[in-house]
Amino acid sequence: MEDLYREIIIDHYKNPQYRGHLDPSDIHFEDDNPLCGDHIEITLRVDGDGKVTDGRFDGNGCAISQSSADLLIESVIGKSIEAVKQLTKQDVLDLLGIELGPVRLKCALLPLKVLKAGVYGLSEANDDLIA
Amino acid sequence: MPLDIARLREDFPTLAREVRPGVPLVYLDSAATTQKPLPVLQAMDDFYRRSNANIHRGVHTLAEEATAMYEQAREKVARFVNAPSVEQIIFTRNATESINLAAYTWARANLKKGDLIILTEMEHHSNLVPWHMLSAERGVDLEFVPVTDDGLLDLDVYRSLLTRTVRLVAFTGMSNVLGTINPVGEMTRLAHAAGAVVLVDGAQSVPHLPVDAQALDVDFLAFSAHKMLGPTGIGALYGKKSLLEAMPPFLGGGDMIKTVHLRNFVPNDLPHKFEAGTPAIAEAVGFGAAVDYLEAIGMEAVAAHEREIITYALERLEEIPGVKVFGPAADEKGGVASFTLEGVHPHDVAQIVDTYGVAVRAGHHCAQPLHEKFGIPATTRASFYIYSMKEEVDKLVAGIYQVKKIFG
Ligand SMILES: Cc1ncc(COP(=O)(O)O)c(C=O)c1O
Prior knowledge:
The complex is a heterodimer of chains A (about 130) and B (about 400).
Chain A: H1 7-14, E1 27-33, E2 38-46, E3 52-60, H2 63-76, H3 81-85, H4 89-96, H5 102-119
Antiparallel strand pairs in A: 1-2, 2-3
Helix pairs in contact in A: 1-2, 2-5
Chain B: H1 5-9, E1 18-20, E2 23-24, E3 26-27, H2 38-51, H3 61-80, E4 89-92, H4 95-110, E5 116-120, H5 129-138, E6 141-145, H6 155-161, E7 166-172, H7 184-193, E8 197-201, H8 205-208, H9 213-216, E9 220-224, E10 235-239, H10 241-246, E11 257-260, E12 265-267, H11 281-297, H12 299-318, E13 323-326, E14 336-341, H13 346-354, E15 358-359, E16 361-363, H14 368-373, E17 379-383, H15 390-407
Helix pairs in contact in B: 2-11, 3-11, 4-5, 12-15, 13-15
């Protein structure tokens, strides 16, 4: 279980590279996990070709949700919006490099949910985004 | 005489298990639900093996036996909270249903738009949401007794709220987050002097403290068996007889009626009026056995043991740099320690100490408004019961030091 707290996760939790808020931004979305109060806000900048040029996350929560957000932002910068739309649960788990039980999976996937709701321009996030 | 905890723990099969090979369980989540002793398991097993039948109405031997066992359980529960008569104990599914029963029957029959209900900021969602629903439906007003920084109810504000016309005061006997033991007797006396009815959420107080419904003079008292060594699926609502008699029935169906015609019915007498359909019979029998078990120990001894454990736990927790425990000092609280650890989310704390077999809960513990009040999304909660040991507190503390090491 301690594998869950691999160095990479603790590292991204304590020293996030992409914590912050872009203003102005082209994409902005936020949501929380009511069960544990985790909160994630994501802002992205997108260029004329539909490529993500910069991104930030903000919020609070457990090491899993916060490191997942940092890793996710890192991975989408330089990607096209179309590619971001294709991201799956497995992509996030690969970034984190861990296996998770159902409760912690929600923590890990909250950033992806927020990110995808943002790029799809939804008014509300839903679990189909991270199925 | 202090409890022989080692001996008592032998009655609890779960407490002897390992969560993973070589890692014994350290169960510190009794405020959520307690573990069950053998006499409770045996009573339910015996019921199903020997006496299983539906209750009431039956004349055959098993039906009579089952009915007697169910009604004996009610007698035991009535005695446990010192109800003046047995029919003042209504069996429900849990404390939540007990509170809802009062909200749907007594409150809807008696409260109208503009009437005031006083609640507190430390309530469990079970003693908030039924009143939110009533308020939305009826336009009933809700006011809240504030919680002070040290986790006590602000009784000065309570007194000033009572100068308005108040119809109901509903509050918890003991906070499931802060552990605060509220002055139920005094608050009830003040409420009655102001002409209000009093409902006490006894989900935490009845399992952990001696509770005498007559001495406290409460009008309603709600509690759950599963938090006091009994099974899930059964709880009770104690009520004053005059109130219960005047209340309309809750759910309709079999058993709650005296006679039924095509177009109308006559409700049954207490307590059956509020128990529609086949109840949780085996669970009631288990509830009775749980109460027997607690009575054999004595609730004074239960409370004294928990006081000893919480005193030790607060001492150990507060010496850890970065740990902040919420709620009053040990002499004003039951066996609950909710805390934060600086820089680490409660979920991470709970997950890491689980590696060492330590079961604690992380989250808002169904008391979100209370956490908002303290400006925190969540806490980690360790909660104790008669079987808790100081060695278990030590294991929690060692686990927290591991958390600190991992988060460096
Ligand atoms: C203070 C308090 N009230 C009410 C409840 C609800 O109990 P139950 O879920 O058994 O109805 C709980 C249990 O979590 C509690 O701690």
